[in-house]
Amino acid sequence: MPTRKSTTRSKRPVARGKSGRPPRQRHAQAQAAHRAKSPKKWSHHVMETSDAMDIQHDIFKTGSAESIAHSLKQSSTKSRRRKGTPFQSAMSMLNFYINRAGRNLPKARRDTLQQAKRKLREAFGRAP
């Protein structure tokens, strides 16, 4: 009986999507297209085009913790462009801003925004 050579390649076909390319190539193609359109500030694009609620312009940059919490509560209860409850939407927007600012956010401003979280929980009657 003749002996068979073992091959190292798998007999399974490569998974392909709609474009006919393997996933890694599709990802690289999408990344290249994204870099060509907007090299910076994708979070600004998300804020402008997503189904997030409509908020007051520059609310996170100016104002006290109370005014931020009040504005977010008002925006989230009035908005028709939210997916969750008003509390979830307001807290998500606040967390999104804090997370995207990252290390560039001064400590004093970060403390104000953290206090705004507590005020927002109080405004919605949630436990801290």
Automatic annotation (TrEMBL):
Residues 1-44, 105-128 are annotated as: Disordered. It comes from the Bacteria. Pfam families: DUF3175. Residues 1-27, 34-44 have a biased composition (Basic residues). InterPro entries: Phage_RSL1_Orf186. This is DUF3175 domain-containing protein. It comes from Paraburkholderia xenovorans (strain LB400).
